[in-house]
Amino acid sequence: MSKPEPLVHGVYYHVYNRGNGGENIFREARNYDYFLKQYARYVEPVADTYAYCLLKNHFHLLVRIKEEEEIDLTGFANRSGLKNPTQQFSNFFNSYAKSINIAYGRTGNLFQRPFGRIRVMTDAYFVGLIHYIHFNPQKHGFVSDFREYPYSSYRAILSTDATKIKREEVLTWFSGRDGFTASHISHADDKKITLLIGEDPD
User: Fold this and answer.
1) Among 49, 56, 178, 194, which one is most buried in terms of CB atoms within 10 A?
2) Max Cα-Cα span within the chain
3) E strand or H helix at 54, and its extent?
């Protein structure tokens, strides 16, 4: 397997990962909250987030790596570290895994390595990926209606509450809230996405 390319400033990515050996990376509700807390600490300084979904043994993110001049270095002692977004993601995964290992008395890698990343190069992939990410809990049978799943960005995008998600940009891609909800009701062909990340298309 070839080594994946480092994350590049200004580029959109589908970032995803699974538990090592299919292990659950989230065991209880507080794990999801802690994952998002650490995400805010390590990843939000270097990346804009457009969609996410956290499931028991894997997760999906749609992000844009910020340009170097967009990164706010305020409050970071190791400012040079923020110049390497790939390392920031790795630090994030390591921090979360360390906490899970301590909390549950486990050892070893929690996540598969390296973490998955695919450049999002087209409008069609961007729009299709958002639908795919939000539909994932229903696809895998965690809920009967993905719109009710609490650990995805779907409801945050439709809400008017404060959010770190790039809500207005996402809604613009779908021509507003009505277009966003309509696109999620319609069937999306996720075969290309599932093949890219090694899942079996249903």
Assistant:
1) 49
2) 48
3) strand 47-54
